[in-house]
Amino acid sequence: FKREQSGTGFIVDKNGYIITNNHVVEDVDHIRVRMHGDSTEYRARLIGADRETDVAVVKIEPKRPLSPVTIGNSDGVQVGDWAVAIGSPFGLEATVTAGIVSATGRDVPGSQQFQHFIQTDAAINPGNSGGPLLNIRGEVIGVNTMIATQNGGYQGVGFALPINMVVRVYNDVIREGRVTRGSIGVQWDKYTKPETLKAMGVDHGVIVGEVKKGGPAEKAGIKPDDIIIAINEHPVRDGDDLMARVADMPRDGKKMDFKLTVQDRTQVFADDPRVVGYHANPEETGKPEATPVKFGFQGRAVSEQERDLTPDKHGVTVTRVEPGSFAEEIGMAERDIITAVNRQPVNSVEDIKKLAQALKPGDPVAFRVVRPISAALRNQGAPRSATLFLSGTLPGN
C-alpha cells in the first residue's frame, strides 16, 4: 500500500536547507521537493525534526545556489498586522491568501507545550502546512501549521508557529542534530488558580514548588514559594509560559535576569520570634482545636511523624473539614498539613487564628498544604507527600 501526502516548505539557505512542519515529513519513506517555477523534482533528506514544536529541517542538493526567504521578527508582530500565507492547499501550488494577525501567543487545545501560535484569518487549508506566513514587507513571521475547524476545512482560524522560535529550533538542528532546551531546576503546579496568586499579592506568575538540589535555581537563591513573575523583563504569565521561555534560554553562558516576589523567610507566627517550629506536647497533639468558622476546619499541631513530611518541619494538621464550608469548597481534606497561609508560615493553630482575624469576607486566601500519599501509591513509586495550594475568595458571613 502506497500513500502520498503533500505539504509546503520554504528555503532558508542557498545550499538547499528547507524548513517545514514535522507532521509533513514524519514517518515517511521518501521526501521529494519540487520548487515553484522549476519542474525538477529533488530527493530530500531529513536533517532533523522536533515533535515538541512540529518543526522539521530537510535538505536538497541544488544545481545552483538558491534564493532564501527573508526572516522577520515575530516578537514584533501585533494584532491587526497584515498576514500573507503561501502554500499548496489541495495540491494547488503557490497559492497566496491574505488576512490579518488575529492574536499572538495563542495556546491551542491539543497542541504541544512549547507551541504558542500566531493566529490569523488568512486562509490555511490542507497542504499549507509548513509554508511561510509573511508580513506586509514579505518577511517570514511564522510557519503555517494548523487550523481550527468543525468541518475539516478553512473556517477563518489558522495558526502559525512564530518564526523566532522556529529559527532557534533550526539552529539547534543544524549545529547539534537535535534540539536541546534550557532548564533552571524548579517544579511548579501547572494549575495554579488566579485566587492563589491574588492572595499572594500578584496577578501573574509561577509559584515555585520544588527546587532541584544543585541546579541553577538553587544556586541563584530561588526557594520554594517564591513567585517568578518575569524573565529578562518579559512577564511570566503561567507555567507553560515559564517552560517556553526557559526552554528558549541561551545556552552560551549568558546570564538571565529573573524577577521574583519572595516569601518572608524569617517571619513566623510564634510567641518567641526565635522559634522556627511549634513543638507540641502529647496532650496538644492528640486534642483537636477549632479554627474560626470563617475557614471551616479543625486542626491540631503536627505530630513528630507528620513533621518529617513537611519541608520546614512545621505546620498544622487538619482533623476535620466542616461540610459546606469554605475549606471544603477549596478542596481541603483531613490529614492535610497546612504549612502557610497567604505565604505566612504556620507553626500552630494560634497562627491560623491570628491570620483569620486579619482577614475579611471577599479577601483571597491561599493555603499551602502538604498532603500525605496513600501507602498503595507509595508502593508504586509515588513520593510520601505532595505539596498543594488550595485557594479561594472568602465568602460573606
Q: What do these coordinates show?
A:
The structure is a single chain. The chain is 16% helix and 31% strand. It has 4 domains: 10-59, Thrombin, subunit H, CATH 2.40.10.10; 74-176, Trypsin-like serine proteases (Thrombin, subunit H, Beta Barrel), CATH 2.40.10.10; 186-192 and 200-261, Pdz3 Domain; 282-393, PDZ domain (Pdz3 Domain), CATH 2.30.42. The strands form 4 sheets. Strands 17, 18, 19, 20, 21, 22 and 23 form a 7-stranded antiparallel sheet that branches. It has helices at residues 22-25, 163-176, 194-199, 216-219, 239-247, 282-286, 304-307, 326-329, 349-357, 375-378; strands at residues 10-11, 17-21, 31-34, 41-50, 55-59, 82-87, 95-106, 117-120, 132-134, 140-147, 158-162, 186-188, 206-211, 227-231, 234-235, 258-261, 289-290, 297-301, 316-321, 337-341, 344-345, 364-372, 385-393. Mean pLDDT is 82; it is low at 264-293. It contains 10 helices and 23 strands. The longest helix has 14 residues, at 163-176. With 397 residues, the chain is of the alpha+beta class. It is elongated and about 80 Å long.
Radius of gyration: 27 Å
CATH fold annotation of the largest domain: Pdz3 Domain
Shape: elongated
| Assembly form of the protein | single chain
What do we call the CATH homologous superfamily of the largest domain?
PDZ domain
Structural class: alpha+beta
Percent range of helical residues:
10-25%
Question: Quick summary of this structure?
Answer:
The protein is α+β, with helices and mostly antiparallel strands and 397 residues long. It has helices spanning 22-25, 163-176, 194-199, 216-219, 239-247, 282-286, 304-307, 326-329, 349-357, 375-378, and strands at residues 10-11, 17-21, 31-34, 41-50, 55-59, 82-87, 95-106, 117-120, 132-134, 140-147, 158-162, 186-188, 206-211, 227-231, 234-235, 258-261, 289-290, 297-301, 316-321, 337-341, 344-345, 364-372, 385-393. 16% of the residues lie in helices and 31% in strands.
